[in-house]
Model the fold of this input.
Amino acid sequence: MNAGRFPCLHPSLIQKEIFMASISKKNNRIFEIFAATPVRILISLVVPTITFLVLRWSFIYMRDSEASKFLIGIVALTVGVGGVWVLYAATDNLVGIFPVRLRDTLRPFVFVGPAVVVLLFYIVFPALRTIWLSFLNRTSTEFVGLKNYAFVFTDPEMFIVMRNTLFWVLVVPFVAVSLGLIIAVMADRLKPSAEKIVKSLIFLPMAISFVGASVIWRFVYFYQPAGYDQIGLLNAIITMFGGEPIAWLIIRPWNNFFLLLIMIWLQTGFAMVIQSAAVKGVPSSLLEAARIDGAGEIRIFFNVTIPYIKGTILTVMTTILFMVLKIFDIVYVMTSGNYDTGIVASRMYQEAFIFRNNGRGSALAVFLFIVVIPFMIRNISQLRENRR
Amino acid sequence: MKKLLFVLLGLTLVVGFVLTGCQKEEAAEEAGMESKASYTQNEWTDGEDLSGKTVNIFGAFVDEDAKRFEASMVPFEEATGIEIEYEGSGDFEALITVRTEGGDPPDVAAFPQPGLMQDVVSRTDHINLSDWFDSSYMKNQYNQSWLDLATYKGEMVGVWYRASVKSLVWYAKPIFEAEGYEIPQTWDEMLALSDQMIADGYIPWSITMESSGATGWVATDWMEDILLRTAPPEKYDQWVAGELPFSSPEVKRAAEVMGDIWFNEDYVLGGRNSILTVPFGDGATPLVQDPPKALMHRQASFITAFLPEGTKVGEDIDYFYLPLIDEEEGKPVLGAGDCFTAFTDKAETKAVMKYLTQGISTKAWLQSGGFVSPHNDTPIDWYPTVVDRGYAEILQNADTFRFDASDLMPGQVGAGSFWKGMVDYVSGEDLDEVMMKIDNSWPEE
Amino acid sequence: MSNKTKNNQAITQSTPSKKSRPALHIRSWTMRLVLFLIVLIWTVPTLGLLISSFRSPEAISATGWWTVFGRLFHAEWTMQNYVSVLFADFMGLAFMNSILVSIPSTVIPITIAAFAAYAIAWMNFPGREAIFVMIVGLLVVPLQMALIPVLKIYTTYQLNGTYLGIWLAHTGFGLPLATYLLFGYISSIPKEIIESAHADGATPWMSFTRLVLPLSKPAIASFAIFQFMWVWNDLLVALVFLGTKKENALVTTRLAEMVGSRGQDWHVLTSGAFLTMIMPLIIFFSLQRYFVRGMMAGSVKG
Done:
């Protein structure tokens, strides 16, 4: 096949294969010898137990130790990465002792298990708790049924919050992904040094924390009444051309767009980086073929490139959409949702932590869970498609 | 290759280490760690030796203020051998919620808002301080107003540590002297003075409100001050408790009186637009510019931290007491403060709390300026400057003292709809509608 | 042959094709201009902050940052913002702590996610789809909702305030995205490759470690960059799980404190933003090389 393309496959794999075969034969002989049940059980218990004990010791060491932090960090890295590997390898080996059918059934769970366990504790259980809390009152002491949801769907302020969230959801992913893709494709045509500069500069905003970004855009949107020195960039440009300064973050409903512009500014780098790699993976043979058939660059872009990287586009779009739904920092830091700029995420934070209303905060979070269901479905069909 | 990555990482680690070495790091608390003859000869530990124990305090003040607080704790640490660890965060509100509901409360928490304190206390196990300190002792230490503010459902839940005075009007002293303006003693005199200033070619008021998410609180301060001066204090208390609605005539009148100044385009620097958009911290700066762009600014005492470097408080800028409006309401003072609550039932926590009820616990901070102690046993001559002494005197001479209402009301209103309502009002919305919306948002319970 | 085809052939023949980069002489200048404009608009806001970080707070509030261009050598430049941040108390320690938190919080989730993504992509087991759906769904759970319940668990196991606690927390919160991104990538490796390895007798473990992992370097690198950045710039999770003790300060928490109890020293954020940007950028540049090789394993159509 394509030995040249994936050199790591053939030579080393074959070697390893021979080696592994020899070892497993040896193991089998050993285990045949120790086929006596008690010994077998003993061995299959000892290895994971030792691993577990080591992990437990290191857990306590890292937690309680007064040792230098640096040392703790090294232990963490060793155990965290190395330990995880050892755990997988040990369990994998253990599973490998079992008969084939059992092994093939168990092994995937070895691979996927730790992830599932971690997710259960850190996200699934909290999510379930959140759903439960959404049916309780503000201090989580009484059951109130759907009252919080009634608030979410009927309160006039919430109506504006929903409307704003819709703006964000419709505009940000689409613009960020498209812009990222276009920039990726265009930059691809430059020489490598220029391309690197372009990509780095577009990516730069992502490296800035939200707090830093809020300060940056403060200097762009700042408003001083007419007659004063403008220190906001936009108003300075406007007054330079003789216009009246505009209070960008106050005028409704346009202030929402100026806020989500910041999000686009931040996320396009992400979309660009991921899609750029995908774009580079489009085989030149396909592009050449299309060109030979007479297609112009734009047609190639739409008919060849995009279909080819469809999966990536979906991934990036989904990721950015979910981020848009749950990132509240921008709105919260710039306006705290005032001037009709609130979005579900910022309102959720406000309700839960400032107004200390657990019921409503949770209901808003659950609302987010529900909203993303269509996207989950879309992703599943993509998953099935891949398998075909 | 990976090599480059590691080299770069290594470099940054080296730089980090160097920087770490380049500064003074606080070694283990030197204070109090020298061997003292006895740790039992103090007023706070009830004769027990509690040395070596630690009490952690979590609060909202950070940086410089945190340092001053720690300095004030030193006498206690030296006398008792107990170590006080202070942690502060600007996200105090969110964090205290998470910590108390997550089962990890601090030993002591310093609440800047009694409303928040009451809400937290209603949901979390805490110490009933009436069990620790008897009421005659507390009545000695504090005025009744402070004690009332720290009581929740009959329990004493907090001790007051720091107070701040809000009923102040800052003014450009040099101009006042040059033009011969006199400090107004009544609201009407203040309005007349404003007209006079306009006639003389000045802009009388600088009013600025912008504070990102918290925009609106400046207006709430004005409303509270005015309400205290136009209605009896019982009305204020009812308002805070949610019994007097925002749409009642008293509260509406306060908003209208405020509007008389705020919405008068000639009175305010930059007009209504700049009220909403200029940051609150920039409010006093026009007064000290050369020439001053405005002459008066009503704000609490902390505003001095925002003045440009080199400004001399007392010379370039000074303050006077916000004058009374209706004679019969006397001289009320609006203020704020920090209240400490205890969550863990330990002997060392009790010792710390006792220390905090006494003026001595504020000395170091007080003497670095900008701090007022609510304790009765704080001698007035501890205050370092005339300016600071003035705050303390206003506080002591007040006929009535009331706490900032928006810090007392439930968060939904005090940090939510009240602020928002004020923003809407200043933006031009109808007052009746604004008040109705705020009333509707009051949580039922 | 039609004229069009002739021309196209001429174009493709005249330019030595380097992968997929034909020279577009007609449109290339427009394209370059457009790119230049986009990059300019993108960078100007950050440039504003950079310039402001060298100005005093009074200057920043008084005049716009672009005014310095009129008087480059007479403008009042000052290093004070940088000095006060760099040499602030505990800043060096905070820097070390941030690294100590960020690196494990990046490496550990990648490890766990890679195993899981491989299993979901290429192994068959009951519940495969359910787990995948769960992971995608969890992408949207706002982590603020998890703070209290997780803290409750931590209090029981005395994990709060420990570094282990925050590594695990970041692992937990970052796992959905990690798994999702890695899955997207690993699942697009052509089936034939995986199957041929199988045919050669490789166990899943071997194909994972010797085949899939090396191939996934671009995806791993890209997630590593984002996760590192996110953890490095995070404030809330650190405050909740690591605590507010001085010894545990991170760059983000330290900087937040320096702004002052009332935000009066906000100007430290101008220099602070740039100083904190350096580390993520270093990571970005070092890992960038993984993006340019045939990522998204191209088609292997025979």
